[in-house]
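Possible regression after last week's pipeline update?

I re-ran a chain I had predicted before the update to compare outputs. Posting the input and the new output here so someone can diff against the archived version. Not blocking, just want to make sure nothing changed silently.
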Amino acid sequence: MPTNVIMPQMGESIAEGTLTKWLKKPGESVKRDEPLFEISTDKVDAEIPAPVAGVLVQILVEEGKTVPINTVVAVLGEAGEPAGAGEPPPPAAPPKAPEEPPPARETIAPPPSPPPPSVSAPPQPGETVEELLRRRSSPVVRAIAEEHGIDISGIAGTGISGRVTKADILSAVGSGGPKAAPAPAPAPAVPPPPAAPAPLAVSSPAPVVIAPAPAAPIVTFSGSTVVVEPMSAMRRKIAERMVESKHTSAHVTSVFEIDFTNVARLRDRVKERFEAQYGTKLTYMPFIFRAAITALKARPLLNASISGDEIVYHREINLGIAVALDWGLIVPVIRRADDLSLVGLARAANDLANRARTKKLAPDEVAGGTFTITNHGGFGSLFATPVISQPQVGILGVGAIEKRPKVVTMSDGSDTIAVRTMAYVGVTFDHRLIDGAEGDTFMSIVKNTLENERWSELESL
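New output (post-update):
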């Protein structure tokens, strides 16, 4: 009996996924739980295992196509079995809209009085307005719009081909509009007042209205001197998130020079025994995590979020750690990092990074971060101005940790030049909430911890 393979739901809020790569070809055998295909969602990239052992009889969804969850993507059967679908899966329940309004971000004003079919996504032949809206948005976006009475047709989608993304609809919810209304007639039944057009209805006090970012220009190239290929699903999502963050937060970066000499000496002395005893490598990052946690406890604004005109303080410190992949970037989260020892931080970071590179992360492991740390210095850079991961308000960037000459004051007050292990470490913060003095106070705690902490839990090694 053929077995249907479906697009799984990778997380409670995920309503669709992009099938990025087939790991088997039609006619090839596959074992139960052997990776069958790869998918990309708003949360994570993952390998999906085969539900049963058998032969890949038929592929129904090609690489690069985005489909709703529970869509049949392939059929497994026995060798020589004709292609055909098995028992269809039960229809997917419509995704439940959030019970509470999500944190508000910047309000993006929709274009004035747009007709339902967007210019960037014209209707196809014979397509109704309802079918157009389904093509321009996912089920979860439509559920949120219905919950809050938002008219999707009045939103300028920032996704591919004018697609309305989850970020777009959440922004519209935060602004209070555009409100759903009957389909517009060729001429309005009631003419507008002679005064200026009525402003977009917003909650009081009204958030700042920011004009939508202009669409990236489409430039046509041809000839044998170029190779053109579409962005991967992950690359498109990264692009959307980066532009969204730049249009949300007022980014400011403050950089401190930090002396890692004491940390470097301790690490060199204990790293082999540390790995033998705890089964994981001791890098510089757990020390940096601990310093950041100490600073976040002292300056909780850096561990907060902005919701409209309210400040949301997070009681837990969930550290996002940026991991560079050959095919993009992902930020898994160390949950309740403030409860972990130096050993626990090392184990958690190494485990998450390894599973990120092998596509073994679960959706919940890349969500819920309250502050992020990125080690751009691992590639040799000294300075960087990383982009804040929304809805966070800060990200710590660590430059290359290297030996260089430094003026050192001796105990007798004289100065000398010594070789020290140094690095530039900076915090990029959201100036809407974090002032320069607050950001620098945070960094001074990070600096003091890394330079003067005794790290007693490693002294016995």
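Follow-up from reviewer: compared with the archived run. Residues 261-278 form the longest helix (18 residues). Marking as no regression found.
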